[in-house]
Amino acid sequence: EALMANGRFRIAEPILTALLKNDPDTRTLLTAASYARSTGDFAKAVEFARAAVQRAPGDDSARVALANLLAASKDAKERAEARQILWELAAKEGTYREQALQALAVAPELSGEESARVVQLLEANPSPGIKDSLLASDLRLQLHPEDAGKIFDQTVARWNSSKAPDLNQLALWLNLRGQYERVLSLFSEDRAFADNQLLISRLDALASLQRWNEVETLLNHPDLTIDPSVLESFRARAAQEKNATMDAEMHWNHAISLAANDAGKLRFVARFAEASHAEAVALKAYEQLAKIPQFAVPAYRATQRLSAKAGDTAVQRSAAEKIAGLAPDDPNAMNQLVYLKLLAGAEVAENFEKAKSLAEKFPDRLAFRVTAALGYLRQHDPGMALAQFKGPPGAPPVDWQRTPPAWRAVYAATLLANEQAAAAAEIIKTIPRSGLTPDERKLIEPLR
Predict the structure, then answer these.
(1) DSSP-based helix, strand, coil % in the chain, nearest 5
(2) Fewer CB within 10 Å: C terminus or N terminus of the chain?
(3) What is the pTM of this model?
């Protein structure tokens, strides 16, 4: 478990294999499920979790683990099974009742009747925590959008006298739902200066309302004790909104410098810069975060995501290479790198073999089959490319509307190569051009 937590899957594998040979107990089976999920073998993860439940049917920790896995499945029947397990856990007193209710509250396929039932169960608690209360409010907003104002008012009235931790959660919840004026009336400016998290929520609300003069007034307040890197980030955003480009650049650079090697501060600056549409700054902050070993992989993944949005495939590929180097046992990292190399037409023969191997090992992973299809296209074998989209026996048909634009582009290119131009054109109609990199756009250029 310690090795897995540190991404050392290759060293963990023989230890886990030995444990599984010797009448594995529930904990070992759940560890194996976690290992399988972390290394991309979802079907095997479910198999181990089911074995854990069969071995100890009364162990709710095993049932929760199985439900969490099934809830992430692409199979509607497995997701329904996950909800059934969660309903059973929610109906009994015990350690996992609250966790089950919270998981049900965010399940995407609840019926209106089920949502109402979850609200009832969450509110039945005589002393609910703020997390349960906010989840119940979210469900009520979904069920009765016409009563949104009333629901927000009731939620604020229930928690506006809370102490800092709960008040911070309430302010964050309101900001995320666009209730900026309610955040500003939730607590006084003096109260905000007594708690930096509240002050950040107030600044967020003012920024979202484009009230930059008030933002600057707060930033210049003599009692300000907010972290300097956060302070400089807000100053940069304010300058940016006023088109003071040089000032914005100076403050962004200062924010990154002040964050230094503090992972929490660097992540704040990077995410805030990304939300502020200062992508170059975000990339710079993530680059600095990547120098901290335990945060390197998530930092490179963020770099990959940002460079993909910008269409910079060279930076994207470089980040993918670093992720694959840091996590050599992660098939997802390998697949992404192979995909980008095949997309660029680099080392096609070698990467085609890797793509084919991953697709054969994980036939239920559409992402891997998409990469294999791209490999077959690069090898001028359109028939085998098309075969990749059939999936393993019993697999449900692909709902292309819900897939990433890049996957649709590869599928459309495959249809086109198989002289199915009309079908390819229908898929291409669903692809937002902004969602593709230049290399991905080239795949479907003949029909553009």
Answers:
(1) 75, 0, 25
(2) C
(3) 0.68
| pLDDT tens readout for residues 82-121 | 999 999 999 888 888 988 999 999 887 888 899 999 999 9
> Distance between CA atoms of 218 and 238, rounded to whole angstroms?
11
First-to-final CA distance of the chain: 50
In order of 45, 148, 171, 337, 339, the CA distances from 41 in angstroms are: 6, 42, 39, 18, 19
Question: Does residue 417 contact residue 382 with C-beta atoms inside 8 Å?
Answer: yes
The angle formed by the CA atoms of residues 48, 52 and 57, to the nearest 5 degrees, is: 145
For 238-272, what is each residue's pLDDT tens digit? Answer: 999 888 999 999 999 999 999 998 999 999 999 99
Report in angstroms the alpha-carbon separations of 429 from 46, 309, 423, 424. Answer: 36, 20, 10, 9
User: b/e for 115-149, b at 16 or more Cβ within 10 A?
Assistant: bebbbebbeeeeebebebbbbbbbbbeeeeeeeee
Contact 105, 139 (CB under 8 A): yes
> How many residues make up the chain in this entry?
448
